[in-house]
Write a structure and sequence with these properties.
The complex is a heterodimer.
Chain A: E1 7-10, E2 13-15, E3 27-30, H1 33-37, H2 41-50, E4 56-70, E5 72-80, E6 87-89, E7 100-109, H3 110-113, H4 117-127, H5 142-151, H6 153-158, H7 164-167, H8 186-191, E8 205-214, H9 217-223, E9 229-236, H10 239-256, E10 271-273, H11 277-311, E11 317-324, E12 326-335, E13 338-347, E14 350-351, E15 370-373, E16 381-386, E17 395-396, H12 406-412, H13 415-424, E18 428-430, H14 434-439, H15 448-457, E19 461-474
Parallel strand pairs in A: 3-4, 18-19
Antiparallel strand pairs in A: 1-2, 2-3, 4-5, 5-13, 6-10, 7-9, 7-11, 8-9, 8-19, 12-13, 14-17, 15-16, 16-19
Chain B: E1 3-7, E2 13-19, H1 22-37, E3 47-54, H2 58-76, E4 78-88, E5 91-100, E6 113-114, E7 120-124, E8 127-135
Antiparallel strand pairs in B: 1-2, 2-8, 3-5, 4-5, 6-8, 7-8
Helix pairs in contact in B: 1-2
Classes of the chains: A alpha+beta, B alpha+beta.
């Protein structure tokens, strides 16, 4: 991305001056010069389009891991005021509604699992349905699925998947309010029939990791993390149901834009006023999609525990946190000293509440919300903590962010060779798709260390711990 | 059935279908999309699924077609190899053949949905071309 003309108004926060003739709100790019310079020009184009949508409050923003998406860039954040004609956009949430990461801390250390890492990886791969075409063991009727869409992770706990203790450490305490299963199409529900408790494919994974470095002792203590400890991260979302909600509403909102009097700079930005019937219908469906994702990760956490205990009978796996990164949520934010109810779109961006936020679990309230930047299977991931005064509506990076297309990655790497090389480095990969492994090659992503550092330097979230992968089930 | 091709997108993938008719171009795009999920040369056309949909907007029809194929495939646990699409005014009649996922099929990456990004349908020198980005 050509950053000539960009102004660094505050550390690691860049803006483009608004020309008098331009009818748009400001845009802000978080990250260092290196990250911005290597971003696709489409990131700039897409976030400039977002800045033209009605009812935007403040600036349209991109996180340090941003890359070209559809409609909104991945790593895009935008807040809209319903009272000012603000909109809700299916393209601003993404197809994989509430895709996110569940992080589990264990009572195991690296030296406990090292001798049995191979059987552990095999057992996880056996129990966790992963990859295209794989189905879960749970088959739900449409009416049962409606209960999932209302209950989220709470439904899963009530049906024997995990414990009540998990729920305190899941956003929304495991259940998103405002879900309307009737707004979810039959096709969407049919797509989910065999997909509850599945990981999916692409960039989704289940990873066994070890805490290699602690940056912030106080927050690490609050999160229950110590050096050498084994943790597990599960990255996945709302599966076929969420994908179909995205598909259904992207098309219906695109068709309705003209009737609603909204001029779209890009059809992929299909949206409706939050307070319109169309906007409310999508909101109800999207909230149902969020609950589907929360339930899915809850079930996968349960399957993970079972796999661990079959190898390590005394293993304890507690939920550290479950945070989504493809959502639009109603939140109160102070804008120019005035509290306002805003609908914050985070597409490939994670929520990052600072200390003392009322929605945080009591255990973490004094330090802030756990934020997880999921890296690559060959490099590592970060646990961070939300900071006071976050300038992006309490948002932060969600991953390393792709820097190379899947097509280019396939040309550069062989999946088989990559898996063998990682095994040589002590990282066991289990996958049904060597093509998928090549597409997800660590070299196809930005440097996660650079992203995490920029996230901290920009005041979005502070690094707490670095996690090194040891075994990874790839979708 | 038309021909298939891909174009670059950082996070996802662009699919292109070409043919002498609009239907052939859409069939080619479908083959490109399913070719991301499996090695189609290994897929046998054992079962055929038929469906219709109404869409007056020709460009949106490509997205509806591709997404409908994903629904039909996922709800049956299938992967499709061959495709047929015929237009009758605003109604489109589709057909796809393939088989259920089984051990031995070379798997790729799941496609979540066809998007409106880089969506373009047009004709040049007698060849129809249909393209869009699919979310992976």
């Amino acid at each position: 991305m050509d950053i000539q003309g960009f102004q660094e108004k505050r550390p690691r926060c860049w803006s483009i001056p608004v020309a008098p003739a331009e009818q748009r709100a400001p845009v802000q790019f978080f990250g260092d010069e290196q990250l911005l310079a290597t971003m696709d020009d489409k990131v700039r184009e897409q976030i400039m389009n977002v800045a033209r949508l009605p009812g935007l409050v403040g600036a349209a923003m991109t996180m340090p891991d941003a890359h070209w998406g559809y409609g909104f860039p991945i790593g895009g954040v935008a807040a809209f005021d319903p009272e000012q004609g603000g909109i809700i956009s299916a393209g601003g949430v993404g197809f994989d509604i509430s895709c996110g990461i569940r992080c589990l801390r264990t009572n195991l250390a690296l030296f406990d699992i090292s001798p049995l890492l191979t059987p552990l990886a095999d057992e996880l791969f056996r129990r966790i349905p992963a990859g295209v075409g794989e189905e879960g063991h749970l088959r739900l009727s449409v009416s049962e699925l409606d209960e999932v869409l209302l209950g989220g992770a709470r439904w899963a706990v009530d049906h024997g998947y995990g414990t009540q203790d998990d729920l305190e450490f899941v956003e929304e305490n495991g259940r998103m309010s405002g879900a309307v299963p009737e707004n979810v199409s039959l096709h969407a529900k049919q797509r989910q029939h065999g997909e509850m408790g599945t990981l999916g494919s692409g960039n989704h994974y289940l990873e066994v990791q070890v805490v290699e470095h602690i940056f912030d002792g106080e927050a690490a203590e609050a999160f229950g993390l110590v050096k050498g400890q084994v943790v597990v991260s599960i990255h996945c979302g709302s599966r076929g149901l969420g994908h179909q909600i995205g598909t259904d509403y992207l098309l219906s909102l695109a068709r309705a834009a003209g009737r609603l009097g909204i001029t779209l700079p890009d059809r992929e930005l299909a949206c409706a006023p939050i307070l319109s019937d169309e906007g409310q219908r999508y909101l109800g469906a999207m909230n149902a999609g969020i609950n589907c994702a929360l339930a899915n990760r809850q079930i996968l956490a349960h399957l993970t525990r079972a796999a661990f205990r079959s190898i390590f009978p005394h293993a304890q796996l507690e939920t550290l946190y479950d945070v989504s990164h493809n959502t639009c949520k109603a939140e109160h934010h102070d804008v120019d000293g005035r509290p306002r109810l805003l609908y914050v779109h985070r597409k490939g961006a994670t929520r990052a509440f600072g200390p003392m936020h009322p929605s945080l679990p009591a255990r973490y309230r004094h330090v802030g919300q756990p934020v997880i930047i999921g890296g690559t299977m060959g490099t590592g991931s970060y646990v961070l903590v939300g900071m006071e005064g976050n300038p992006a509506f309490s948002s932060a990076s969600h991953g390393a962010g792709r820097s190379m297309s899947r097509h280019a990655a396939l040309k550069q790497w062989s999946g088989r060779k990559l898996v063998d090389e990682l095994a040589h480095e002590g990282i066991l990969i289990r996958t049904r798709s060597m093509r998928g492994a090549a597409e997800e090659a660590p070299g196809a992503y930005k440097d996660v260390d650079v992203v995490a550092r920029a996230t901290e330097a920009a005041g979005l979230a502070r690094r707490v711990a670095f996690l090194r992968p040891k075994a990874c089930v790839k979708g | 059935m038309g021909s298939s091709e891909y174009f670059e997108h950082v996070a996802d993938m662009g699919v292109v279908g070409r043919g002498t008719t609009l239907g052939e171009a859409y069939e080619g795009a479908a083959a490109a999309m399913f070719g991301l999920m499996a090695d189609l040369s290994e897929v046998h056309p054992r079962e055929t699924v038929r469906f219709s949909f109404t869409e007056p907007d020709v460009e949106l029809a490509l997205v509806v077609w591709l997404n409908r194929l994903l629904v039909e495939a996922r709800t049956r646990g299938m992967v499709f190899r061959t495709f047929r699409l015929r237009r009758e005014n605003d109604t489109w009649h589709g057909e796809a053949s393939g088989e259920r996922w089984r051990e031995g099929l070379t798997r790729g990456t799941e496609v979540k949905g066809a998007t409106l990004t880089a969506l373009r349908v047009g004709q040049r020198d007698g060849t129809w071309e249909a393209r869009c980005v699919v979310d992976m």
